[in-house]
Every structure is written in C-alpha cells, then in structure tokens.
Amino acid sequence: GKTTVTEAVKDNLNGILLRSPPPCISHWRTVFDDEPTPIKRAFYAAGNYILASEIAKASTQAPVIIDRYWHSTAAYTIATETKGKVQDLPPAHDEVYQWPEDLLKPDLVLLLTVDPEERVQRLQGRGLEKTKEEAELESNSLFRQRVEESYRRMVNPACQEVDASPSKEEVLETVLQLIKKHFAL
Question: Which range is the signal sequence, renumbered to this chain (predicted)?
Fold first, then answer.
C-alpha cells in the first residue's frame, strides 16, 4: 500500500517522489541488511542524511513525497533493540522518539497501517520476495507491535495514522484530504 499511495500522491500533487535509502546507495541495501544490526542501522541512518540533501534540492522545484525516512529507521531500531512486549519499549517521552535536530524535518508524516491478516494477503498478492523485516513483522507479532508503537510515540513531527485497509482509492482520498488540511490547500 505504501508504494501505491506514495506514487498516487506524487501524481496528484505533481510532486517528486524520493525513497530511502536513496538510489545512490540503495544497491548496497542487500549487503547491509545481512550485517550485524548496528552496522545495518548506521547504513539506514546515513541514507537519511543523504536523502535530506536530495529533499532540500527537490523541494525548490515541487512538493516532495518520501517513501520512508527517519521515523522508519528509528522505529525499526527501537523495536529491534527492545526485546519483549510493548511495555518494554522506552517510555513515551524518551528522547529516542525525538527527531534529530540536525536532520531536515518533514512538514507532515503519515503512517499507513493495516491489520496483520490484510498485510499478509497484500504481500502474497504482490508475489515479491519478502525482506527480512517483512518476514519478521509477519512471524513475530511482538516485534510488529513494538514497531507500530514506536511509530506512534514519534514526536516533532508525530506520525498521523491512516488506516490503509480500505480500497486504494479510499486510502488515497484520505491521504489527500490530510495533506490539504495540513497545508490549507
């Protein structure tokens, strides 16, 4: 759903779609995904800073839509480093949920959520190979819960949650309404 929505938003706003990790390093993703967690997370963190430079440049030309950014890196790191249940996560106002002061900040962050069964059906329907994180989300409900709750605890900017279970068209309409409301378009 995320890729479908970001592509549709880009088209609707005549925007520029950027992805993390950015293309200049994304070919290294499979290599770093097999590295120990601290090295893998450093790769994704570096990707956010490289992406920030691309965002700054692109934003002078058109609205910029980003498919994953710091929130994703942080949520997966927190969920990986915290074992156990949601209650074992750092407390809600812990600094780990704060946006880094030296990283270009987005104006609006949307978190698309679907229930686990719907998520599995969509992944199977795509026929694509799952990443390690997708496999972990599917097989480990405690990990999935930690990731989702970590996203929900992010602040400055916080994530606005969007239920992505309805049809593509309905989700896109919801997302566009949130964007219009946020930017008073």
Answer: none
